[in-house]
Amino acid sequence: MDECPSVVGARAEREVTYALEHDGWDVYLPVFASHARVDLVAVRAAEFVRVQVKTSVLRKGVVVFRPYSNTGNVPRSYEGEVDAFGVYSPELHRVFLVPFEHTSARNCSLRLGPTANNQQKGVRYAGDYELTPRC
Fold first, then answer.
1. Which residue segment(s) compose the domain that 31 sits in?
2. 66 FRET partner, CA 20 to 30 A, in 28, 52, 58, 108?
């Protein structure tokens, strides 16, 4: 069943928030800036991270998400506006925190296992970015 995009987005924001809090972050929501490109602000000790939340899809053992917006069919980068992507995988019920500089301009892939040809260069493994699972 197809869900409304706002329902999918709200679920992802909730799951990313829970995972960040479980991992020791304090999470703040931009209540009066609903138009902002930042969904959450996470703070831990001296770290301050602007987070854009994304819902991923699972394709052949790879978690895939778009590190850009596509409003009106016009792709727009988050460069300079966010520090990381909080990625929720509904199929795995897992959350990943991916620094902006670790993403590509187009679809970003997080591998769950090794590549078929054992390639290592340029491969992002999901386990390197996973937040502590909730109990």
1. 5-128
2. 28
